[in-house]
């Protein structure tokens, strides 16, 4: 077989929905047909693109590279039909950009301005203020889906690692099990509470102490470095003084970086540009996380040649 645009769209639909069944519904196909199509694509590529986890279907390291290339190809094809600004896309106005993943914000803004110098951005002062687009973090099981008014594209999916104080008793364990940390004091953003509780239930234990914190993940790492507890952090978190970043055995918890935008505010061409900027920013962020690359090298086999 030869790869066609429809095959690339199947891969992107599976990545965006986190499920073969939901992807099938999104593209108007049956689940068996979509599963068969995925197997044919993987045979053609010579490696597995997705793996099944407790959090849903997530890309392998090889799959993430394939998806990045697929999205770039599809974005270029889409732009061929949008050589002029689409309805609702006013390039000189200010776009309201919300972000609950600050690590992606600088790189995304810098690349967006390189590609579209006329763009201007403002950051909403409060979480409940209206926005035109958003850089969001969510868990694959959260149920976040595109709507007629709101579009969503997954930038990347990665596991959550555990952050421990540098002198922690498990510092020599390459991949501690979540159950090994049952007695820890956990410092968690509110957004992680539900997924964390579900993972603990699957591991047959209840955490001893959980503090829900309004602070961002950067502030939580400062608390971990001070020896006040353990935390969950994205695998792409850069190395932090006084903190050990370790994968959990079996990768029971995953996180998605998602670009959201109001369809009435952004046309397809501008949305593609901003998605490309966010994807490039994520790749740069992940490149600075040696613990992520070490885990991926142990976990996923390279593609056959």
TrEMBL record:
Indicate the segments annotated as coiled coil, or none if absent: none
Q: Which GO terms describe its molecular function?
A: DNA binding; DNA-binding transcription factor activity
Q: Which residues form the HTH lysR-type domain?
A: 3-60
In the record, which residues are listed under signal peptide? none
SUPFAM superfamilies, per this entry? Periplasmic binding protein-like II, Winged helix' DNA-binding domain
The protein's superkingdom reads Bacteria
InterPro entries assigned: LysR_HTH_N (IPR000847), LysR_subst-bd (IPR005119), WH-like_DNA-bd_sf (IPR036388), WH_DNA-bd_sf (IPR036390)
Q: Please tell me whether the keyword Transcription regulation is annotated for this protein.
A: yes
Which family does the entry's similarity section mention? Belongs to the LysR transcriptional regulatory family.
| Protein name, entry field | LysR family transcriptional regulator
| Organism of provenance | Kitasatospora cheerisanensis KCTC 2395
The beginning of the lineage is:
Bacteria, Bacillati, Actinomycetota, Actinomycetes, Kitasatosporales
């Amino acid at each position: 077989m030869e790869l066609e645009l429809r095959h690339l769209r199947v891969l992107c639909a599976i990545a965006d929905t986190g499920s073969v069944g939901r992807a099938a519904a999104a593209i108007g196909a049956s689940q068996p047909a979509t599963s068969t199509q995925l197997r044919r694509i993987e045979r053609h590529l010579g490696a597995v693109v997705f793996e099944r986890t407790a959090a849903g279907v997530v890309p392998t390291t090889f799959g993430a590279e394939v998806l990045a290339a697929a999205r770039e190809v599809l974005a270029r094809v889409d732009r061929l039909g949008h050589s002029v600004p689409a309805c609702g896309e006013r390039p000189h106005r200010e776009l309201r950009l919300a972000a609950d993943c600050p690590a992606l914000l600088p790189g995304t803004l810098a690349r967006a301005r390189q590609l579209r110098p006329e763009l201007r951005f403002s950051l909403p002062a409060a979480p409940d203020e209206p926005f035109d687009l958003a850089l969001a973090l969510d868990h694959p099981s959260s149920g976040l889906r595109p709507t007629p008014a709101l579009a969503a594209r997954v930038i990347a999916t990665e596991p959550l690692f555990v952050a421990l104080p540098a002198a922690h008793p498990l510092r020599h364990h390459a991949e501690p099990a979540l159950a090994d940390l049952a007695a820890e004091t956990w410092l968690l953003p509110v957004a992680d509470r539900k997924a964390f509780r579900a993972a603990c239930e699957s591991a047959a234990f209840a955490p001893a102490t959980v503090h829900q914190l309004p602070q961002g993940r950067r502030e939580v790492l400062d608390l971990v470095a001070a020896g006040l507890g353990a935390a969950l952090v994205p695998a792409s978190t850069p190395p932090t003084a006084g903190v050990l970043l370790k994968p959990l055995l079996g990768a029971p918890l995953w996180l998605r970086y998602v670009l959201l935008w109001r369809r009435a505010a952004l046309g397809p061409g501008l949305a593609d540009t901003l998605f490309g900027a966010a994807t490039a920013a994520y790749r740069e962020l992940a490149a600075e996380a040696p613990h992520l690359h070490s885990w991926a090298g142990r976990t996923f086999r390279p593609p056959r040649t």
